Amino acid sequence: ATRSRRVVLARTVDSQQKVTSVARILIVDDDRSIRRTLEKFLGGEGYEVTTAQDAPGAIAAVNSNVASGANPEPIDLMLLDLGLPGGSGFDVLSALGDREDAPTVVVVTARDDMQSTVKAIQLGAYEYLVKPVDIDRLGSVVKSALASRELRGELVELGSRGAAKCTGDGCVAEPDAAEDEDDGAALVQRVAALRLDDPCGEE
User: Fold this and answer.
1) What are residue 8's phi and psi, to 5 degrees?
2) What is the sign of the dihedral through the CA atoms of 52, 53, 56 and 59?
3) Distance, CA of 74 to CA of 11 (rounded, Å)
4) What pTM was estimated for this model as a whole?
5) 5-33: per-residue pLDDT in tens?
6) By the 8 A CB rule, do 113 and 125 touch?
7) 3-state secondary structure string across the chain
């Protein structure tokens, strides 16, 4: 079915080139009905969605950088259950580690205990949601997570541009230094706005 809208993210291919592409989400849950419900909802919101039913499938999707069809693209966001066949959601989080191409992870699980919450956050989860999840709440968290991911990418790019101006002969002022300062100030404002609008801070 043709969708009327697409949610896109800006991606930096190299220091000089940016592209935009559809935000890609991987749903990892062993419950088929949950996968289908979330896939339908997020697809209707304009995201490119794929699913996995177990831990090995989740890791394989990230390793292959394929989120939909045959088009190789990084997965931007993973909705991850903790109780999975072939390993736990914690195993998936551990496997992702600090790899640069790792998706942002939102845990969606029936485990409502502080120990699991703390462990998931320590392993790098962006947010921890307990089933049954309010669909509007989930939509807000997904938007916040993707916005945070895009900002982090822009901050990394800005830092790289600054570092590139410093060589073994010292740091040289570039003509676009003022532009970089403007970019940095704009990013700071966007981060502040994101924190104020973050639905996670309401609880």
Assistant:
1) -115, 150
2) positive
3) 10
4) 0.72
5) 455 565 544 444 444 568 999 999 999 99
6) no
7) CCCCCCCEEEEEEECCEEEEEECEEEEECCCHHHHHHHHHHHHHCCCEEEEECCHHHHHHHHHHCEEECCEECCCCEEEECCCCCCCCHHHHHHHHCCCCCCCEEEEEECCCCHHHHHHHHHCCCCEEEECCCCHHHHHHHHHHHHHHHHHHHHHHHHHHHHHHCEECCEECCCCCHHHHHHHHHHHHHHHHHHHHHCHHHHC
Distances in whole angstroms, Cα of residue 199 to Cα of each of 126, 136, 148, 174: 12, 11, 13, 40
pLDDT at 101: 81
Name, in order, each residue with C-beta under 8 angstroms of 147's C-beta and a sequence gap of 6 or more.
Answer: 194
The rounded distance, in Å, linking the Cα atoms of 184 and 158 is 7
Sort 170 into a burial class: Cβ within 10 Å, 0-12 / 13-18 / 19+. Answer: exposed
